[in-house]
């Protein structure tokens, strides 16, 4: 069985899907940075509480942002 080749000019995903994926990547990077800060040994209790608040908001945003994303990605195939 041969793999189907895409035309070089054909975009891998639609512009809307590309924007959604870009926003998702940015939010995931934000969550990763917050987790790294939280894991730091030099974090005060106040900073920890602030980071946890930001992390909670970011996780909620990810949850909201990814609602229906699986359907969008299936349509992009």
Point out poorly predicted stretches: none
* Content of β-strand: under 5%
Order of helices and strands: HHH
Which whole number gives the mean pLDDT?
85
| Domains (count) | 1
Instruction: Give me the Rg, rounded.
Output: 18 Å
Q: For the record, give the distance between the C-alpha atoms at the N and C termini, rounded to a whole number.
A: 18 Å
* Helix/strand structural class: mainly alpha
**Total count of helical runs of at least 4 residues:** 3
Please outline the major beta sheet: none
Helix percent reads over 70%
| Shape assignment | elongated
The total of beta strands comes to 0
Q: What does this protein structure show overall?
A:
This protein has one domain. The mean pLDDT is 85. The chain is an all-alpha fold. It is built from three helices and no strands.
Task: Tell me the layout of helices and strands.
Layout: H1 15-39, H2 45-65, H3 69-76
Helix pairs in contact: 1-2
Brief write-up:
This protein is 70% helix and 0% strand. The protein is mainly alpha-helical.
Could you name the key traits of this structure?
77 residues; mainly alpha; 3 helices
């Amino acid at each position: 069985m041969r793999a189907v080749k895409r035309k070089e000019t054909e975009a891998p995903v639609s512009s809307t899907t590309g924007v959604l994926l870009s926003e998702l990547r940015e939010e995931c990077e934000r969550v990763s940075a917050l987790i790294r800060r939280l894991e730091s040994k030099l974090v005060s209790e106040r900073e920890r509480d602030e980071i946890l608040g930001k992390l909670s908001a970011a996780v909620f945003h990810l949850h909201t942002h990814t609602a229906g994303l699986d359907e969008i990605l299936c349509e992009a195939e």
